Amino acid sequence: MPLKSKQARIAPLEPPFDAETTAALGQLGPPIQLFRVWARRPELAKGISGWGRYYFSRDSALTVRQRELVIHRTTARCGADYEWGVHVATFAAKAGFDEPQLRSLATGSPADACWDAADRAVLTAVDELHATSDLGDGTWADLVAAAGEDGALDLLLVCGWYHAISFTVRALRLPLEPGTTGPNSP
Question: Which of 7, 6, 5, 52 is nearest to 25 (CA)?
């Protein structure tokens, strides 16, 4: 269930930032609330940025669309309105998602008519991981056919990472970033 708290449990840092914090934020990206919480401990922020640099680069075996299918679906399934909103605002257009697909990612099914077979394989894998922490042989075979073995491995890690991000933003009670909405918002 989405959380509606307006006050974060750990306050994000506010400008002006010292040099070490500025450097840490520079590695993470725009100074959104989550990054400003991580930047309270610059070494944590630097460690997290290394992980993100890989998964948000061309080195990842996942396409932008596949990565965002995983992230959008995982954050929606976890009720992480904050992270859903950030990814919709930043990546939905780059991933080529239309309104029916965003609705389906939020509350629909991989069987919805808006998905092709490759997207359906990714979403089925995400849903199965969310429900069982495992993939059946058929789901694995469909995922490998859609994304390759390296893509399947990256999907497992991205899905797990965004469970961790979802746990973090929910437990921290981070309010939505300005101009964003959660997956169940009107």
Answer: 52
Angle between helices 42-55 and 137-172 (to 10 degrees): 150
Grouping H, G, I as helix, E, B as strand and the rest as coil, residue 135 is: coil
Task: Determine the angle formed by the axes of helices 137-172 and 64-77, rounding to 10 degrees.
Answer: 60
- 64-172 is a CATH 1.25.10.10 domain: no
Give the pLDDT of the chain (186 residues) as one tens digit per residue: 444 556 899 999 999 999 999 999 999 999 999 999 999 999 999 999 988 888 888 899 999 999 999 999 999 999 999 999 999 999 999 999 999 999 999 999 999 999 999 999 999 999 999 999 999 999 999 999 999 999 999 999 999 999 999 999 999 999 999 999 998 765
Residue 127, number of CB atoms within 10 A of its CB: 17
Structural tokens at position 156: 């497992």
User: Could you tell me the end-to-end alpha-carbon distance of the chain, in angstroms, rounded to an integer?
Assistant: 15
Task: Tokens for 120, please give them.
Answer: 């359906």
d(CA 7, CA 157): 30
Domain positions in the chain: 19-55, 64-172
96 in Cβ contact with 118 (< 8 Å)? no
Quick check: bond before 42 cis, omega within 30? no
